[in-house]
Amino acid sequence: MGYSPRTMPATVETAKNIWQVIFASAMGTMIEWYDFYIFGSLAAVIATKFFPETDPTAAFLSTLATFGAGFAARPFGALFFGRIGDMVGRKYAFLVTLVIMGGATTLIGLLPDYKTIGIAAPIILFTIRILQGLALGGEYGGAATYVAEHSPDNKRGYYTSYIQTTATLGLFISLAVIVGVRLSMPIAAFNDWGWRIPFLLSIFLVAVSVYIRTKMSESPLFAKLKAEGKTSKSPIRDSFGSAAQWKTIMIVLFGAAAGQAVVWYVGQFYALFFLQNYLKVEFVTANVIVSIALLGGLPLFIFFGALSDKIGRKNIMMAGNLLGALAIYPTYMAMGFFAGPITPAIKEVKDAAGVVITKAVPAIAASANPVMLTLLVFSLMIWVGMVYGPIAAFLVESFPAKIRYTSVSLPYHVANGYFGGFLPLIGASLVAASSGGPEMYGGKNIYAGLVWPVSIAAITFVVGMIFLKETNLNTSDADGVMHPARNESETSQAG
Predict the structure, then answer these.
(1) N or C: which end of the chain has fewer CB within 10 A?
(2) How far is the C-alpha of 375 from the C-alpha of 235, rounded, in Å?
């Protein structure tokens, strides 16, 4: 009897340890996301440490640009580590990425600030972010591919959806750690040195995950291909060496991944950025609002991933893009309403002569409604779950096994690195260039940055509905254009 992922005996065997596979893969991926996002979550503090303080706005935009540099590097990491994963093995590639990410994050916690080493501080910080981006670019594709190649065909969306929870879970844990550290000390101490603690904690998390991953075995499908000498000798050429392959990648990028990226970031990371920097919701309150919304939204990834096994990936993802495009602007407008007016806080102090005077301190949203703000951010998580829950299975099913690591990683990281990752910088730049807004927002239109995610989500909906093919009934070797079930490099004929 010929090899088929639906009937191979290894499927029964892997079903017994699938939860060990998911745990080991998700643990490491979650830690890499934690490492990656604590930088962005602490952007306002980092801006004061590693850039000149003469122009706070320029320093903050420089910090966002440095944050974005990590995203810019992700596609290159996808190519580099994807090639290793398709030639050497999935396990080896994402074990290396984990070590690089953990080391880079720890270095940020130890890096001297601008006052100590001058211009070298932002240069080194920028370099570290590049390393983090390269590492993350090699991580996701390996984890998604590894879990998918252990999964039976009829539950691939369900099992890979656990990998989809890791980005949100990593962001949630980063926020929880930051809030915990912030509440454990005076704000002056936190701004002085306490912000370094979340970065330094990474070394312990990574050590645990590295230990767990060293115990993992290679993907059974990849091990079979390697044993038979059927792995790709040149994964990059095999992935991008023809017009047909580029057509598949571009359809995947613009018909699924790009919209998923902006809906994810506008529903989670940009929501936190918006609450803190434009609506002036107090630091701890904003982090708690987003953390609760993220925690409540986590089951949605698994729900929509499992649902996609039954009704298909395409319709769920396209509905998420359309509904997200329609809902983003009114949801953010409602956030502005429930954050309330921004008022400068007044603090009574004594001058040198002992006379009590009033002094204005940074503006805050003193009457913000945290319950309604949490519900609004949670509502964004519905669309996030729809576009993100099924996409790992969709990506894996779009490419053949011998080039899967490389092919999955590139469109995903181009989308999330450029379309999604630069959302804070693009949004902040659009807001900075706007005018005609209320005085409490400095005359700026704080909703101007939403043009980017709304437009990209709408484009993805149109492209996806026209060109995207359903994949949930494909075998695990599916290629979309060239079906691996008919390709003897992936399978043999029955009988």
Answers:
(1) C
(2) 45
